[in-house]
Design brief:
Layout lengths: L2 H23 L7 E2 H10 L5 H12 L6 E2 L1 H13 L3 H11 L9 H11 L5 H11 L9 H9 L2
Antiparallel strand pairs: 1-2
Helix pairs in contact: 1-7, 2-3
Length: 153
């Protein structure tokens, strides 16, 4: 398998995981995320002022002005994390999963992150996602690598 094939597989898997996260947040199963559902998810993730952050996300990402987010709009939220000043909140979230406080996430912490989010990911999927995010191949994901991985989704 070539490096391009592995990268493609990782991107397909990352998109599948993003679908799983979307479904987890979409608690009523209507294929749309309301501001209430987004606020609950941000609260669960430890964001300060989750309602305010949810409102900011909706203003930027709800391109069809429906008042909620479909999957494509939700995927755009990942780009907004970096583009709209939510990187600080992302950093706080990232460090919340950095259990040993070394400034990086190892494969165990990465696995725990998915468990916390309630997203089922098997060992093979964890390995592909982790390896894809670990750009410098040092066995750890730093905040910059994590943001870069999100931008590739």
């Amino acid at each position: 398998m070539s490096e391009d094939d592995v990268s493609l597989d990782a991107n397909v898997l990352a998109l599948e995981v993003l679908h799983r996260i979307f479904a987890k947040i979409d608690t009523d199963g209507n294929k749309r995320i309301s501001i209430e559902e987004l606020t609950v998810a941000l609260t669960d993730l430890g964001f300060d002022s989750p309602r305010t952050v949810a409102e900011q996300v909706m203003v930027q990402a709800d391109t069809d002005l429906s008042g909620d987010l479909d999957f494509d709009e939700f995927a755009e939220v990942m780009a907004l994390i970096e583009q709209r000043g939510l990187a600080d909140s992302f950093g706080l979230l990232f460090h919340g999963f950095d259990k040993d406080a070394d400034g990086t996430i190892d494969e165990y912490e990465f696995r725990e992150m998915f468990a916390f989010l309630g997203v089922e990911v098997d060992d093979a999927e964890i390995k592909v996602l982790f390896d894809n995010a670990d750009a410098d191949n040092d066995g750890r994901i730093d905040p910059i690598e994590a943001l870069e991985a999100l931008k590739r989704l």
